[in-house]
Specification:
heterodimer, A: alpha/beta, six-stranded mixed sheet, four-stranded antiparallel sheet, 33% helix, B: MetI-like fold, 2 domains, 84% helix
Chain lengths: 268, 249
Amino acid sequence: MPDVHVSMRGIEKTFPASGGGREVHALGPIDLELHRGEFFAIVGPSGCGKSTLLELIAGLAEASAGVVQFEGREIRGEIADRVGVVFQEDACFPWLSVAENVAFGLRKANLPAADKARRVDEALGIMGLQDFARHYPAQLSGGMRQRVCIARTLITEPRLILLDEPFGALDQQTRLLMGEEVLRLWRQTKATVFLITHALDEAAMLADRIAVMSARPGRLIDIVETGWPADRDSRIIERVEFGTITSRLWRSLRAESLKAGGRPADRA
Amino acid sequence: MSGAKGVSLRNAIALIVGLILVWQLLFWFAGDIAMRSPWDTVRYARRMMGTDSFWIHFWESVRAFATALAIAVSVGLFVGIWLGFHRLSGRVMEPMLVAIYSIPKITLYPIVLLAFGIGMSAKIAFGAIHGVIPIALFTINAVRNVRIVLIKTGRVHKLTMTEMARWVLFPAAMPEIFTGFRVGFSLTLIGTLLGEMFAAQRGLGYLLMTAIGLHNVDVIMAVTFLLVLCAASVSTALLAIDHRLHRRV
């Protein structure tokens, strides 16, 4: 039996009515278990509630119904210890240098200054940012800024890493290379990774398991096991099975994407 | 010196030389009944600065301006932060602030005089009235424009409310707040000097108005020159800081 790291039972999220409109049933019900140390990805049409699901796990939002547990403890609108989040948008603090941004992750840690400095250096080294430690985010490319955010998350040594479309703003080549780096970090840290993405190829390359979500209200309609070895990299996309996996994901997702776009599935 | 800095310095020197040249040409055109040459003005300003009475007026203006600026900044920041965070109040109050801002402040001066009387209080109030609204409006926008993802990042790092304000909200809003301060600085100075010109017994504005009444061109030119010199120097320094803060965003 796999060790359950995060469990969601009967999760639902409804947003209250605003501006004279009706309340929005955004998500659920969802039942899902993430295994300790696995790389789990979620794909789904726009607006299906993927990011809402991530916020519920992170403790940034509270579920309207159901229970989210991390390491056996219930999460209800409060951030659990050792959970790191990387957002799609650039979340670097523009007034801090790269090193200061990374060190931000340790501001509240009760550690000697020398230990903090050593860990910042390590995180910068892992993400290949040593030469840019004194630069400001405005002087970096989008990919490098995202690396700074990942380094800031890694420095806290999270056991659960939540990635909300972290490569969404990057070009295809940078995405593949960043994907390789994330895989390397996942192997190094042995953390559980929960990735949200629009890109089927990204999910198929990175994840051990991929869940497909329906159009709103988002539910899980399929879970695909990739069966990749842990020491994979971006060259996995050359394999025949890669095409099979992305085809299966698209089959599940196509009708939902059409539905989300307001078009009937049979007219595609 | 780096290339960009060299070009900036060259441009600044060219601008100053150009202004002095225009001033000299105007002097030749208008004659000494209306103005003085740059050289005569600098010479008279130096002589004036050697007298005690000038410094009495100068420090009176500095005191009034500093107090007015402190009031404008504290009230502007308080109102701006409150209306920036409290969306409903912001939606109601912001159009009112914009409407008040568009009123020529000089029309309010009789009311200020009735309320505060002639003297220090009136010019402080008049200076503060000029500066407070732009500072508040810039602060409202600064607070509203703090990116949600930065607040979420702060929450993920489990920051307390105070830490969130100190480490995320204030630094994120700082560049725009500083722009408001820079604009507020200039307007408060204008307001204070206007206040001194029309209802005061001391201060550089009063000195200027007395000189106008006596047609003392030397004093008019010297005081104006010193005011422009002080205001332009501080504004340039504030602009440089403003650019530096915005470059990182």
